Amino acid sequence: MEKKYGFIKMTLAEFKDWLKEKKVANTIFRIQQHHTYIPNYGHFKGNNHFALQRSMRNTHVFDNGWRNIGQHFTTFPDGTIVTGRSMEQSPACIYGNNSNSICIEHLGDFDKERDQMNEAQKQTAIEMTAALCQRFNLEVNSNTIVYHHWFKLSTGERNNGKGGNKSCPGTNFFGGNKVVDCETNFIPKVVQVIDPNFVIPAPPVLKYASVTADFLNVRQGPRARFPKTSERDPIALGGIIRVFDEKNKWLKISSTKEHWVSGRYTKEVRKAVVDVDPDDVLNIRTGPSSRFDKVGSLNPKEEVFVEMEEENKWCQLVMREEWISKRFLDFDV
Ligand SMILES: [Zn+2]
User: Fold this and answer.
1) Tens of pLDDT along 181-220?
2) How far is the CA of 45 from the centre of ligand 1 (A)?
3) Distance from the alpha carbon of residue 74 to the mean position of ligand 1, in angstroms
4) Does 275 share its domain with 324?
């Protein structure tokens, strides 16, 4: 823990201990999520937390005329937390919705194509929100955890981003700034911190595809300029990928991580399950009819991937001169 200019800088672990001991004579109903927009990742030098916090306070006090810095807490790209105004005071963060609220500003510009939030900061955002919900006995849902974007700027009315809103905490904050994004990508992670037995439901697979290049690099975002991830090897020709999201012809191939491949080097394929009697098999043939030679067989319930195009009600196994009859395939899986 470090103190400067009237602020305290803490690691996530220090914050949790600090919060447990902290007395707050203010009933809290909501935890607001914001991004600072400016300053952003370009302004963070790794050791200037206090200077950035002070410059935000100066802007809020001298330019905006507020009595103190607007937010209660700022999270930084390295996952540390710096305190702002006292939790005894309402924040100055969402017009008309500040009483009984805690305001967290995440340092960065998390609109699409801008800063990509670091894992450390993501973890802090999730775990400090969970700690605050526990501390103030809040149920975890999209009424207690709120994004600035959901409130109309001029009136403070909650319109869920239907017009006259800021993009804050960013159009790419945990995958998006809409209520559904929060409920899909943020809230389940907060719940999981509080209840480790909670299983985050996997998002549905949008489609399956096979790789058409010799090797396809996996990148940390949906553009060629994003670095390759060290968590996954390139995918070889013919490899099958599950697609969870699609942006500018790039495909997200992990349900939980930012793992993307260029869609240009893939083609969509279909998944099916072999639907024959339990003691039977499905013959694989060299062409699209039973007149062709048999080259193998598939067992009941076996999972297969076939090309989109079919011929004469026969399907071709992905990237092979091998065919199976469509009659014995169940695509409803
Ligand atoms: Zn905001």
Assistant:
1) 999 999 999 999 999 888 877 778 999 999 999 999 999 9
2) 23
3) 12
4) yes
